[in-house]
Amino acid sequence: MKKVLKFSHTLSAFGLSAALISHLIILSILPDQTHSAEYANLRHTITVFNKYLLIPSFTVVLVSGLLSLAFNDAFHNAGWVWIKAALGLLMFEWVLIGISGPAQKAQELVNNSNFDLVLHAELTRQEWVSLWVMLGVVAINVLISIWRPRYSRRSL
User: Fold this and answer.
1) Domain residue ranges of the chain, discontinuous segments joined by +
2) What is the three-class DSSP state of 154?
3) Which of 19, 25, 90, 129 could connect to 53 by a Cys-Cys bridge, CB 3.0–4.6 Å?
4) Residue 38 CB partners (closer than 8 Å, separation 6+)
5) pLDDT tens across 34-54, in order?
6) For 30, how many CA atoms within 13 A lie in the half-sphere containing its CB?
7) In the beta sheet, which residues pair with residue 152?
8) Across the strands, what pairs with 67?
9) How far is CA 95 from CA 31, 58, 124, 131, 152, in A?
10) Does residue 149 have a pLDDT over 80?
């Protein structure tokens, strides 16, 4: 069971990273013309990536990580695991509120006839910031997994 959890955690972490990087790449090639068909198609692509790659892979990362914590007795007193668990829960909120939410709102704006350029620019800026923060947290999680600092929980 531990190997299955580790494999699914690692594989889905690659999917999560790929989704984040793909989102950044698509944002970087968005045309300036927000009313063009190409812009609408790229916005739709972001929505599809979020729906079918980002959210599912992140869900598997979070669930497999928490199950690994529950099933592996060695992890119960390892402080680095608890740091990763806390960061994982923070990332969950960040994915939904900071990345997926603004991307969905931007997609709705593109489909809406009353396009608000100021709101759209703010949503796109929020996506950029959120994606870079999320990639930083992912990198920190990987470093913690490799480094495994010797913090331990205090016994009561």
Assistant:
1) 2-147
2) coil
3) 19
4) 31
5) 677 888 899 999 999 999 999
6) 28
7) 78
8) none
9) 24, 8, 15, 9, 28
10) no
